[in-house]
Amino acid sequence: MVSPSLKLSYLLILYYVLTFLLFFVCLQENETEVKYEEEFTLNSRGMQLLASRWVPQNEAPKALVFICHGYAIECSITLNTTRLAKAGYAVYGLDYEGHGKSDGLQGFVNSFDDVINDCSNYFNTICEKTENKKRMRYLLGESMGGAVALLLHRKMPQYWNGAILVAPMCKIADDMRPNTMMVSLLSALCKVVPTWRIVPALDIIDLAFKVPQVREQIRGNPYCYKGRPRLKTAYELVRVSTEIEQRLNEVSLPFLVLHGEEDKVTDKSVSNELYDVASSLDKTIKMYPGMWHGLLYGEPIENLNIVFSDIINWLEEKSQYGNTIIETEHKEQMEDSLFVNGSKQDC
């Protein structure tokens, strides 16, 4: 015969198991299902670029988020974009020329201007679709992608509703940056042998990602470039980061900048400077003690949860407030259109 105390223990175990299962079922029901799709889009130079999207199923997205990935990385596999889609946002990304599954020599950036134009053309196409015209649009740039996001903003200063800049490449860290003599040499050589991989550099994978398993995943990913930077690529990265650093005061859109205190790839002091000197009236900065460069996928899970919680909370706040603004702007545009048409008819 089973003793009363043993029966009580069984009942308690059963209670906890059922409670856990109920909690898990409720969590699954409340979590937004995500649909992933990818396609190739043709750029102005006749190259096929991989476009990826993560869209909430069975509900309208709260806003649009456009991913600008970092150097030697790609969108479709590496970034934790599903987290944003599960939070109700439609997420879009484009593998740059020479990156991921897109056409081009792997790891080769011939012109940063081409990268900006490719992203601008594709992102604008998504934004201008009928179903998206009333939706807020945000840029999320990580590392080199932070520079891409800032240059997209400069290209169309009034177009984007905000940007999330994760360890942005406003300046390459001094330990990673070529010295003045090397920059002069790069400038001369990249006109002759632009694709050569002879630029001395530290192992960025070891420097960027704290979790060893993530380093191995990236090294094993055939769509992530490994090896020394190509001459023209290195020159373009130095050129663009230097230009951005000199024009930080021109940043006028709402932004959230995030940086790890132990980042050895991009300079955290310039993120602080961006916050201080940017002309934007709506700006937030968060520095994370003990975290490295790869804040979106290179940290332990507890750190990733902190970073994505900060990102999603910022998006929630801006999107909730901003949708009212877009509705007002759309109404004003319609009224202006009716006024113009009415004036023409009166004439």
Automatic annotation (TrEMBL):
The protein's organism comes out as: Lupinus albus
Keyword Transmembrane helix tagged: yes
Q: What is this protein called?
A: Putative 2-acylglycerol O-acyltransferase
Q: Name one Pfam family in it.
A: Hydrolase_4
Q: Which residues form the Serine aminopeptidase S33 domain?
A: 60-296
Instruction: Tell me if Membrane is a UniProt keyword of this record.
Output: yes
- Keyword entries, A-Z: Acyltransferase, Membrane, Transferase, Transmembrane, Transmembrane helix
**Mind giving the lineage of the organism this protein is from?**
Eukaryota, Viridiplantae, Streptophyta, Embryophyta, Tracheophyta
- Transmembrane stretches in the record are 6-27
A single Gene Ontology MF term assigned here is: acyltransferase activity
Q: Which residues form the signal peptide?
A: none
